[in-house]
């Protein structure tokens, strides 16, 4: 399956060249125009550029670097079908195409059928040239989009006078657009010049990627994993197979989007109070080049665990020989739920402290206590701990052991 070719910063350029951009006549470039690393731009005016002209600057250099990455991506995508060299008079569905001759010509109308999917991708791979005649035309039907059509040209592309091409031409060497050729896309040359003559070059609308964190259902409790979800769409349609990383919890969590464009993963929060969740697309399987797009932050309340401390029933027995005044032994146990290690639990009997213990990996604190006659006269003991800044306590029974120990 063809996937969108990443163009990075080159996506805003209608025309990008390595050595020179020359123009004759009233060419209109709706987008940026640039040359790098050591070229020149001539013919503007009379040509006009609605965006910004970049000549051998850092922006043009970055665009060329991003173009090289995109070219390599297109080159590496596996071919789904080999078709005739002449594309005119044919209708194709989404896929990656080459020809047995290693070149493509276009004399007539090539129809690209998006099959109702505006994210459908078409890639044409040429070992050498792309040549369109005066009657060459690309027609898009059933929601096919110019933004998702790519022409990977191994050497040079030549567009015939008055022809109409749709999509981005990524040429390894040069591009020549003869008089009146119309480009609904981009002319991007890696190795040499782009030559223009009274052309119209219009950068397609950039894909609009949206990432929205969904409202979190139910209470969010400290140290209890909470499912969080984000919806990823491109031009209003779900992005399938994208990877989304959620942050804001103790550890970031990454999940893949499903057929509905929704990614869901469990976040765990270690402290009570407000927490801010953000979702960022870290990779895209299909549909849209929206890697790096982040959601607006969503703030949620995190509540302390309810009743996290519990105690087990305990009993006392005579501790022989009789050390006075502490002559009775009991094992006191408290458990944190969910388990948390390293929490100090203080135990008391009849309001008098008898010692403390630290919870283990299972959240259990155990104290072997020696109790006085006064202390065993009560029928309960208490455990107290501070969890997430909140003082919690629990009370359990304390009775004589039976049978006596």
Q: What does this protein structure show overall?
A:
There is one protein chain. This protein is mainly β and 405 residues long. It has three domains: 8-202, no CATH class; 209-303, Immunoglobulins (Immunoglobulin-like); 309-400, Immunoglobulin-like, CATH 2.60.40. The protein is 6% helix and 50% strand. It is built from two helices and 39 strands. Strands 1, 3, 4, 6, 7, 8, 10, 13, 16, 18, 20 and 22 form a twelve-stranded parallel beta sheet that branches. Strands 32, 33, 34, 35, 36, 37, 38 and 39 form an eight-stranded mixed beta sheet that branches. A hairpin with a 2-residue loop joins strand 25 (226-234) and strand 26 (237-238). The longest helix is centred in the N-terminal third of the chain and has 19 residues, at 58-76. The radius of gyration is 35 Å and the shape is rod-shaped. The model has no long low-confidence stretch (mean pLDDT 89).
């Amino acid at each position: 399956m063809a996937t969108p070719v990443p163009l990075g910063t080159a996506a805003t350029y209608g025309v990008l060249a390595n050595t020179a951009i020359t123009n004759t006549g009233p060419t209109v470039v709706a987008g940026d125009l640039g040359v790098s690393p050591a070229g020149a731009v001539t013919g503007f005016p009379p040509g006009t550029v609605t965006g910004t002209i970049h000549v051998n600057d850092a922006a043009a250099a970055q665009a060329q670097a991003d173009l090289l990455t995109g070219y390599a991506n297109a080159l590496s995508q596996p071919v789904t079908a080999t078709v005739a060299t002449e594309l005119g008079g044919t209708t194709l569905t989404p896929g990656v195409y080459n020809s047995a001759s290693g070149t493509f010509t276009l004399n007539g109308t090539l129809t690209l059928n998006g099959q109702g999917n505006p994210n459908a991708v078409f890639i044409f791979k040429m070992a050498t040239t792309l040549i369109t005649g005066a009657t060459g035309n690309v027609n898009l039907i059933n929601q096919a989009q110019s933004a998702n059509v790519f022409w990977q040209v191994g050497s040079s592309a030549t567009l015939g006078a008055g022809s109409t091409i749709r999509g981005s031409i990524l040429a390894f060497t040069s591009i020549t657009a003869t008089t009146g050729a119309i480009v609904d896309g981009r002319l991007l040359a890696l190795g040499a010049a782009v030559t223009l003559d009274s052309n119209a070059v219009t950068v397609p609308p950039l894909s609009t990627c949206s990432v929205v964190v969904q409202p979190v259902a139910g209470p969010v409790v400290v140290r209890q994993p909470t499912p969080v979800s984000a919806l990823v769409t491109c031009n209003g349609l779900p992005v399938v197979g994208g990877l989304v990383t959620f942050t804001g919890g103790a550890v970031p969590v990454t999940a893949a989007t499903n057929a509905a464009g929704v990614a869901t993963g469990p976040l765990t929060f270690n402290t009570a109070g407000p927490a801010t969740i953000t979702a960022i697309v870290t990779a895209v399987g299909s549909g849209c080049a929206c890697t790096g797009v982040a959601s607006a932050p969503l703030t949620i309340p995190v509540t302390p665990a309810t009743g996290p401390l519990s105690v087990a029933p305990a009993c006392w027995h005579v501790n022989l020989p009789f050390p006075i005044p502490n002559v009775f032994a009991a094992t006191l146990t408290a458990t944190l739920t969910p388990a948390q290690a390293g929490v100090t639990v203080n135990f008391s009997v009849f309001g008098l402290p008898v010692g403390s213990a630290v919870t283990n990996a299972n959240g259990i604190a155990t104290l072997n206590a020696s109790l006085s006659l006064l202390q065993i006269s009560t029928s309960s003991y208490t455990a107290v701990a501070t969890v997430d800044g909140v003082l919690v306590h629990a009370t359990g029974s304390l009775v004589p052991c039976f049978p006596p120990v």
